[in-house]
Structure formats: C-alpha cells, structure tokens
Amino acid sequence: MTAELVRGQNHPLPDTRLELRVSAGHPVVAGATLGDERGQVAGAEWIAHPGAPVRPGVEVPGGVAAEHRVSVDLAALPDTVHRISLLLALPPDAGGPARFGTAAAPFVSVDDPAGATVATYTITGLDRESAVVALELYRRQDVWKVRAVGQGYEGGLAELLADQGAPAAADLAAAVLGAVAPAAATAPQPVPETAAATPAASDPSSASSSATTISYSHPSRRTAPAPPVPAAPDPGAVPPRPSEPPSPPQPAPAQSRPEPVAGDATGWTMDERLYNQVWGMFEDLARTVAAYRSARDFADHRLDRAIDQVLADPGTRVGGAGDAARAEARATHEELMGRAQEVLDRDLAHLTAESEVVEPALPAAYARWDNPVWHAYRTPEEPPMAVRLGDLHLPERTGLRIPFLVRLPLERGLWVDAGPGRTSAAGLLDDAELRRLALDSAVAHTARLLAAHPAGSLTVHVLDPAGSGAAAFAPLAETGVLAGPPARGAAGVTAVLAQLTERVDLLQMAVRGDAAEDLPPGFDPSRQLLVVHDFPHGFDDRAVTRLRYLADEGPSVGVHLLMVADRADAAPYGPVLDPLWRSLLRLTPVPDDHLADPWVGHAWTYEPPTVPPGSAVLWQVLGQIAEARRRNLG
Fold first, then answer.
1. Strand pairing partners for 403?
2. Measured distance CA(394)–CA(402) in Å, rounded
3. What's the pLDDT at 407?
4. pLDDT in tens, 431-474
5. What is the C-alpha to C-alpha distance for residues 485 and 478, in angstroms, rounded to an integer?
6. How far is 298 from 333, CA to CA, in rounded Å?
7. How far apart are CA 86 and CA 135, in angstroms?
8. Among 218, 220, 315, 614, which is most buried by a count of CB atoms within 10 Å?
9. pLDDT band at 426 (very low <50, low <70, confident <90, very high)
10. How would you classify the pairing of strands 402-407 and 58-59?
11. 602 - beta bridge partners?
C-alpha cells in the first residue's frame, strides 16, 4: 500500500534498488547529495548533478525538465554514506518561475524495482525558496527509510549546499546551475499551472492586503494545452492603416468532446480520481477565463490603437474617410469580442456539464451539505485525500462553483475571519451577525473535519473563554464529540494550551529521534484540533506565545488550529501577531474574493459551506460520529 507522506514523516524501504520520480509541472534541476551520519557532504565528489550525473549508488538526469527519474542502489553506496538527499532547484534563464511559491507544488514518489509506488510526497508550503530538499533516504541501525523533508531555501542552491556542510558551496552551486544553463535557455515551457491545496494550502502574492494564495496543481489531470494567448502589440511599432487591419487572432477550433463522466481522471481509487478531476476543473476554468480576459484586452487595445491612428492622421481625422475607418475598427473589435465570448461560452458550457455530473457523485468529504450522500453517512475506515471547505467561482460564470478542497492532513491552521469584510454581502450585516455567522461556519468546518476522519482519530478541544459561543457549540458539546466541555476563563485557556504545547514538544522529540515507539504508554495517537473562539479574550502574553507556537509547530505533528476571530480585536498586540495571521488559511463566513491567484491574475470568490435552513444533517452526522466513537471505546 502506498504511503502518502507529510512533512517530517518517515516510511521503511522494502528494497535497496529504488527509483525516485519527480513531477514538478515546470522546469527544475534534480540532484542528490551523499551525506555522512550527520548529513554532512564532504565535497563535490559527493554531489550528483547534471554536470556529474553518476556517483556511487546514485544516478540523476543530465538536464532540465519538468519530470525526472533518479536511480538509487543503496547496496552500492560507500559505507560512509548514511543519507541521500533529493534536491530540486529552479534553473536560471529557463523562462520559468523564479521561486517555488509561484509554481505548481512538486510531487515526488519512491518506486520499487517492480514499479510499485512505495511512498509519495507533495511538497507544499513553499514561498520564496528557489531550492528545496524534497526527501531523504537515510540509514538507521542498518535499516533504510525515506523521510519527507520539504525544506526550502530562499538563498537557493548555494544556501542549501552550505547547510549540508559542503565546502565552497557557492562555487559548487554555480557549477551545478552552470552545467544546465544552455539547456535551460532552450527548455520547453509548459502552460502555467493555475490555482494550494496542497490546500494547501500556503501567501506570496495576493489580490489584496489580506489575500491568501491558493495552489491548484494536480499532476494527474489530462487536459489539452490552453490556446495561445495573443501577445500585446508593441507600443513602439508603427500601427497598420485602419483600412488594412491585421488578421485578427483566431480562436482555437472547436473540438468534439466526450460526454463528462464522474471520476474521469487518473488515480488508484475513486477518491483520488474525483479529487484530481475537481482540481482539473479548477485549472480548466482558470485557463479558460485567463484566455478570455487576454483576448478581450487585446481587442480593446487594438481598437484604441486604431482610433488613435485615425486621429493622428489629418487626412482621416474628419470626414467620410475617418468615419469609415472608425466604423471598421469598431466592427473588428466587435468581431474579436464575439469570438472570444464564443470560445468562453463553449468551454464554460462543457465545465458546467462536467460539474453537474461530478457534484452528485462526490463522497461526503467533498460534497455540499445538501448532497444526499450525507443521509447515508458512516464514519470512514481511512481519511480521504481532502475535505471541502467551501466553493470557488469567478465573475464570468458565478453559477459554476468549484469545490474548494484542502488536502488532509492539514498543513496549516484555519482562520474564520469574524471581522467586517469588503464585499457587499458583508456590508449588509452588523458586527454581531458577522460574528455569529463566523462561529456557525467554524462549527460546520469542525463537523466536516470530524466526519472525514475515522472514529477516534481526531480529538477536538474548544476554547470559549467568555462562554459566548455556547449556543453555536451545542451540536458539538451535546452529541459528545468533544474531548471535554468548552474551556472557559483564563484558567481553562491556560490548561488546554499547556496540554497541547507539551504534546507538540513530546512528538517533536520523538520524530527527531526516530523513536515513536518510546512514547508514554497510553499516549493518545489521534490528531488534535483546537477551536479558539473570542480571541484574545482570556489570553495573557504566555498564552498568546503558546498559541503562536501551536500554529507554527503543531501541524507537522498532528496538532491543528481553527480560530474564530476578528483581527482588529487583537490590535493591541501590534505586529507581534502578524506571523500568526499569515500562517493561517483565512476563510470568511460570507462570500469574499480574498483568495488570490498569482499565476494568471484571478481573484476567486470564496463561499463558505452552509447547512440548509431547517436541516438536521449536522446533528445527524455528529451523532453518527459520537456513536462510532462509543463503539470503539466499548
């Protein structure tokens, strides 16, 4: 069975001969370093890279590509080598991204000699880094394991090699990248990937000061390349005469498309195929709208240029010739706009049809609350790949909503913003109503996360210092799915934060020492979710420090945070809390266009998941979870 690793997790290797596969979606350089017991690299001869692709026990590709295969023979390694690190770096002058945060999340897998996949890892959470240690194969007590690392370096390959102790790291990095410089200059450029999750989700660029970047990379989507976007005219070029306009850009010819089918994507399971299909729909919508907006801008620019040319020529400025030239320019503009709209309508119609087929087929974790699948809900045996935290849409077709899927386990905390929003929907509500909706959204998110996990594998704690959320927390408290009653007052806040902080410290020591078996008897292995309401009420400086620690360090060891807060309430803390807000995925209780797309410039409107008015589905699902938990304990 394939192990889907998260950062810091390890997995035993079944064989000494392995193949490491890399799928990045954009040009990267792949290499490997051979390290001693401390992971230190002795010199250039212990680095495999395109300029020196073969080292004892390791062979890497000799160029730049979006996909790589690295061959490893652990039995052929020198006795002094205890660790192999798989490196990825962005090549200079390749025309691709300059940092991993603006590109698709790289995906790596470890395959055995028969081609079976042993483990996979999607490297999410990168931002300004241009080099990353993807994973490492390491030897401990003569047993080889693979560990998901995902450690990025803003200083690039030179900083990475220096961190591994390589002498003259800057010179080595220059030699590695220099070996691929000619290939990088001519490397084929892929169509830019468009918006996470690796939900991941994880805020390099944004549409507003509070925007969050979303990643929508999925290596399995089988889509045709987007039609080429016409380049904007050169402002310095002499425009053609209006009477002899250049040939307008032609839209891609319509192709017959098969009827959409739910699960029509690659993957080992239906869960994985539907996940890939949903994010494929997301990517297709982003590319379709990007092409339409570009064609529209091109048509507008061409019209302006033609009119300017008419006005600049005294012979055509007035009179019949000028009127005819302007009319011809406007007719060409209308033709271009019509063609762009035709292509947009065609593509959106196909996506709408696909959505109508896929939406009813989604499992509970991916489905809306009004989907009948919830009526037959039972706790899963294994957690799904992701959970639905809302919908996304663009203004060109607001009715076409794409499920906003965030990968599990969560790699960052969640923040339901209870503050005033910028949209008209938020402007119609007073502060009290927004806070109520924010807490209701947080409860619904908590229920979804509980429903996505096997019974007993997610423990939920609630901090409600003032007790003002008692009514909203009733479904969680009365069904018995919480670890205990919501903690109140400063003493309750301190006790829960101390318990979870100690847990994170203990798990981190176990991970670093590769000694999970040494955890205390009776240690609860379940993931933990802390729901914080009414922050910063009831928090002193020490409690705030602990909360920041949990937000930063908790996800890597299974301790997650869900905050319901208005950032303005914490203004007295000043910039001290800025890292906390940035570390969380911001969600809103009403529609808001705060999710930014840095690849093609879209601002996506997020809509929270809402339980249908009068529906008892939330209580029913929580009741099923509580009953399954009681059966397990019994």
1. 391
2. 10
3. 94
4. 889 999 999 999 999 999 999 999 999 999 999 999 999 999 99
5. 9
6. 9
7. 6
8. 218
9. low
10. unpaired
11. none
Q: What is the pLDDT of residues 355-392, one digit of tens each?
A: 999 999 999 999 999 999 999 999 999 999 999 999 99
Alpha-carbon distance of 192 to 226, in angstroms, equals 10
At 280 the pLDDT is 86
Contact 604/394 with Cβ under 8 angstroms? yes
Question: In which residue are the tokens 């998941």 written?
Answer: 609
Residue 265: per-residue pLDDT: 82
Instruction: Report strand pairing: 559-565 vs 414-417.
Output: parallel
How many residues are listed for the chain in this entry? 634
Mean pLDDT of the chain, nearest integer: 84
Cα–Cα distance for residue pair 218/145, rounded to 1 Å: 26
Pairing of strands 592-596, 212-213: parallel
Q: Evaluate whether 458 touches 450 at the Cβ level (below 8 Å).
A: yes
The answer to whether the beta carbons of residues 153 and 130 sit under 8 Å apart is yes
In DSSP notation, 436-456 reads HHHHHHHHHHHHHHHHHS-TT
Q: Token pair of 273, please?
A: 């195929």
User: For residue 516, what are its two tokens?
Assistant: 């999970």
CA gap 450, 456 in Å, rounded: 9
Query: Which residues partner with 141 through β-bridges?
Result: none
Beta-bridged to residue 530, according to DSSP, are 461, 561
Q: Is the pLDDT of residue 193 over 80?
A: no
- Beta-carbon contacts of residue 234 (< 8 Å; ≥ 6 apart): none
Beta bridge partners of 414: 562, 585
431-435: which pairs have CB atoms within 8 A and are 24 or more residues apart? 434/589, 434/590, 435/566
Q: How far is CA 93 from CA 23, 52, 97, 263, in A?
A: 20, 21, 10, 39
Contacts of 420 (CB under 8 A, 6+ apart): 426, 427, 431, 434
Q: Which residues pair with 64 in a beta bridge?
A: 29
Pairwise pLDDT comparison (113 vs 194), residue with the higher score: 113
pTM of the model: 0.62
What is the arrangement of strands in the sheet containing 458-463, beginning at the earlier edge strand? 458-463, 527-533, 559-565, 414-417, 585-587
> What is the rounded CA–CA span in Å between residue 334 and residue 203?
38
pLDDT over 70 (residue 537):
yes
pLDDT at 422: 65
Q: From CA 578, how far away is CA 573, in angstroms rounded?
A: 9
Q: How far apart are CA 168 and CA 320, in angstroms?
A: 74
- How close are the terminal C-alpha atoms of the chain, in Å? 29
pLDDT 10s digits, 285-339: 988 888 888 888 888 988 888 888 878 877 766 778 778 888 888 999 999 899 8
**What is the Cα–Cα distance from 269 to 618, expressed in whole angstroms?**
27
Q: Do strands 592-596 and 603-607 pair parallel, antiparallel, or not at all (unpaired)? A: antiparallel
96 in Cβ contact with 189 (< 8 Å) = yes
